[in-house]
Amino acid sequence: MIQNLFPVGLQNQPIVNAKLPERNIRGVLSISSGYITFETSGFNAMNVVISSPNGNPRITIEGSGDGKFWSPIQPISLSSVPSNLSAATGTLAFVNTNGVGFYQVAKPAQFIRISQGSTSNNSYTTVNVIL
User: Fold this and answer.
1) 3-state secondary structure at position 2
2) Which residue has better confidence, 23 or 84?
3) CA 122 – CA 3 distance, rounded (Å)
4) Given a cut of 80, is residue 32 above it in pLDDT?
5) Are 78 and 47 in contact (CB under 8 A)?
6) 105 pairs with which residues across the strands?
7) Which residues pair with 68 in a beta bridge?
8) How many Cβ atoms from other residues are within 10 Å of residue 39's Cβ?
9) How many Cβ atoms are within 10 Å of 7's Cβ, its own excluded?
10) Could you give the strand order of the β-sheet that contains 76-77, starting from the edge strand earlier in sequence?
11) Which residue among 2, 65, 66, 82 sits deepest, i.e. has the most Cβ atoms within 10 Å of its Cβ?
């Protein structure tokens, strides 16, 4: 009876458990090592948690199809109040305020690079990515 209500047969339905497990990537950004790069095959979006206890670093998220040419990506702030005005208004490099910032990024490219600007006075920034 139920199958008569749906025009698609059960064999065309996706398998519920065919989802890839989460992948966690952790890195530390500093003036001497200002970026992390990772590959995102098989994932559609990512959550980025940026912790900057010592200052307000300028963060840039970029995507690339080949790992050579990079284009800026605008993150979406997941904080209850936008954690910074530049991320809310659409500028590409944004300043993460003191503490922890939560962001979501749709996957636009195979490779993602998260960097801290060289003008940051922050000693280090911790980045956790959940794919």
Assistant:
1) helix
2) 23
3) 60
4) no
5) yes
6) 46
7) none
8) 14
9) 7
10) 24-29, 125-130, 45-52, 99-106, 76-77
11) 82
Residue with tokens 């284009």: 71
* C-alpha dist (Å) from residue 37 to 29, 64, 119: 11, 10, 20
Bridge partners (DSSP) listed for residue 28: 126
Matching CATH number, 23-130, of 2.60.120, 1.10.3470, 1.10.60, 2.60.40: 2.60.120
For 60-97, b/e burial (b = at least 16 CB within 10 A) is: bbbbbeeeeebeebbbebeeeebbbebbeeeeeebbbb
Which DSSP helix (H) or strand (E) runs through 35?
strand 35-39
Task: Enter the tokens of residue 114.
Answer: 């998260």
Q: What is the pTM of this model?
A: 0.71
Other beta carbons within 10 Å of 47: 15
